[in-house]
Amino acid sequence: MRGADPRVVLGLHQSRHERRLLTGALDLGVTALDTSTNYLDFHSHQILMRTAGDLLPKFTVSTKVGYFPGPGGVEHSLEPGRLHAAVEQAVEELGREPELVFLHNPEHSLREAAPHNRDVLAQACAALDNAAAKGLCAAWGVASWDVSPLLSLIDTAAPRPSVLMVRAGLLVGARTLDTADALIKAWVLGDGEVWGMSPFGGSTSAPVWARIDPCVFLRDGSRLSRVQAAFRAAYHLPRVDSIAVGTDDPAHLGELVGALADEVEDRTIQEYRSLLRDRSRGQPA
């Protein structure tokens, strides 16, 4: 059974990387930081070091590799040598070995790699496993926006990720949720090894959050705002232990941390997922 102690991870996607955000996170007890080599136009690591290098030792840091600057803009690659070099560069830019390095959206390249995509994924996983074995990071994982291509490509002989990060929340479709569950099972991931991301589908100000009341998923939802309730419910859609959430407002981060005090009604979550499955039958995921 997972998720007994949910955790908030401060995600830096679209963040300005301001020092006040990091100090605010630490004041709230948020000590996990998630970034990527390609955030802030491939300057996230350098800006973190420049604005808050003295604070980074107080965080566990995860980053991601897979996107690279290219002649036509941003390009994606699962070439093992490039991935290994990207991890080395991350260590140099951060001034430390990150606790976790994710293979970033491998599905971006896997569709183009068919019919050899199983081998391509296995080799990419081996490259990150090798980086961890060399001490360039404490562990490695897979962060996937679209998990649908991954399940059929798992090679049980290939290295297994320590962490899987997937989309989570009320806006995630039934097939994506079911595929994430199957992927978690196939990789035998347990406590602390499944993370969620994008719990609001990109924005807390989207019209959908004014039309639905996520408080129905909680045991005492009357104490929380709709945004807080949606965030708390996201830990069960699918079942994740941590959620990486982005904000530049320490007060908003504090509201989300406060939502963790409530409990989710598992029965309501299961009924909701059943409704999602019924609605998605015969429809694209």
Q: Could you give the order of the helices and strands?
A: EHEHHEEEHEHHEEHEHHEHH
Count the E strands.
Answer: 10
- What coarse outline follows from CA principal-axis ratios? globular
Give the termini separation. Answer: 27 Å
Residue runs with pLDDT of under 50 for 5 or more positions: none
Number of domains: 2
Radius of gyration: 19 Å
User: Roughly what percent helix?
Assistant: 25-40%
Secondary-structure-based class equals alpha/beta
Topology:
Elements: E1 7-11, H1 19-27, E2 32-34, H2 39-42, H3 44-52, E3 60-65, E4 67-70, E5 73-76, H4 80-94, E6 100-104, H5 107-113, H6 117-133, E7 139-144, E8 163-167, H7 174-186, E9 194-197, H8 208-211, H9 226-234, E10 242-246, H10 250-259, H11 266-280
Parallel strand pairs: 1-2, 1-10, 2-3, 3-6, 6-7, 7-8, 8-9, 9-10
Antiparallel strand pairs: 4-5
Helix pairs in contact: 1-10, 4-6, 5-6, 9-10
Question: Could you describe the 3D structure shown?
Answer:
The structure is a single chain. This protein has 285 residues and is of the alpha/beta class. The chain has two domains: 1-31 and 162-169 and 193-280, no CATH class; 35-161, Alpha-Beta Barrel (TIM Barrel), CATH 3.20.20. The chain is 39% helix and 16% strand. The chain has eleven helices and ten strands. The protein has helices at residues 19-27, 39-42, 44-52, 80-94, 107-113, 117-133, 174-186, 208-211, 226-234, 250-259, 266-280, and strands at residues 7-11, 32-34, 60-65, 67-70, 73-76, 100-104, 139-144, 163-167, 194-197, 242-246. β4 and β5 (73-76) form a beta hairpin.
